[in-house]
Amino acid sequence: MSHEYKNPFTLDGKVKPSAFVSKEKVSAVKSLLERHMHGDRIASGTLQEALSTSDAIFNLAHLTNLNFVPEFEEAPRTWSQIAGVRVAPDLRPVTLYGLNSNWDGNVLTAQGAAPVVPEGAAYPYAYISGQVAQNAGQVKRGFKTDWTLESRINDGLGALENLPQEMLQVALDTEEADVYGALTTQVTADSALDGGTVPTGATVSANSPLSRDALIRAQFELSQREINGRKITVTGGYNLIVGVGQGIYANFILNQTLGEIEKGTDPRYVYTINGGYNPLANITVIESEYYTGAAWALLPKPGATRRPVLERIRVRGYETPEIFVEGANAFAATGGATVSPFSGSFASDVITLKLRQFGGAVLWSPLMVITSNGSGTA
After folding, report:
1. What is the Rg, in whole angstroms, of the alpha carbon atoms belonging to the chain?
2. Which phi and psi angles does 226 have, rounded to 5°?
3. Contact (Cβ atoms closer than 8 angstroms) between residue 179 and residue 79
4. N or C: lower Cβ tally within 10 Å for the chain?
């Protein structure tokens, strides 16, 4: 479902028009562009001339942003299945605040409840404490690209037609890189699967390859880990991250169920597709190019735990990427007349466009992620 904006010209403040931009000019450029896309040669020529001799390029950039931002916000992402979102006020490291049950002489109970206050007694103090994301922060990302004079002569408007979609894909890939980068680089040795026995009687090795027993053991190990003295409780299921192409195998083993164990058979291999209990039914498989070979990871879904696990960080006021166009004026040698900046820069006859994007990601709780490199050895 598309988002409805109260102010379509600024998308409720997400797109900021420059001094060269107006509703009328954007509308005129939009009309020329639509006619060009439908094969109107006159409109194509008019638009190309306008981009080289007027401020039409600024209005085209604004129009591009008006189309780019909604498409960016509605585009599918895999990272949104494994991470929540937190908005930071600036570029400093974000802090996760919470009342610490171990603070000030264990004022709160071990389960985080407020203490009983006897009649007439003073209320005890419990102070809020914060965990700073030391290993992560918000950064500025982006790149520039040139629309050269030669490409305008040879290709007309072809490059500009494809540019917004190409930039959109880069912006989406950047978010994926932030989140999966945090997940793969901020885990610690304590995140690794230790291995041990499972209810079937089998023994799972440390860093076990992906299997039903390994996933059962991973859920058990996660339930035994503690943060601030409290065991991790997962109520909304897990995400299983595997490499590209491994999803078929992962879904196959997840969708098997335990059948009745026949006397004299090896219980590790008594699985049936029909009926029975499936202890892995609450796991969703996600393929990611950031995992290769036999490596895999299991972590709670966003919102499945009281404490956040993995979050994408956005900077307030800069939640969506922006596209800019450079407008450095030059002067003609004859008569000192001002040359439109849209006929190309003084140095290299190019129009330069820029993508700017702020953001980052943080893995708050490496203990809440079970990782395995699939080697079967510690």
Report:
1. 28
2. -125, 140
3. yes
4. N
Helices in the chain by DSSP H: which ranges?
Answer: 23-37, 41-53, 56-74, 149-155, 158-185, 212-224, 247-254
What the block records as the tokens of 209 is 């390859």
Take residue 81 and report the two structure tokens written for it: 């299945």
H-helix or E-strand spanning residue 131 = strand 128-132
CA distance 152 to 159: 8
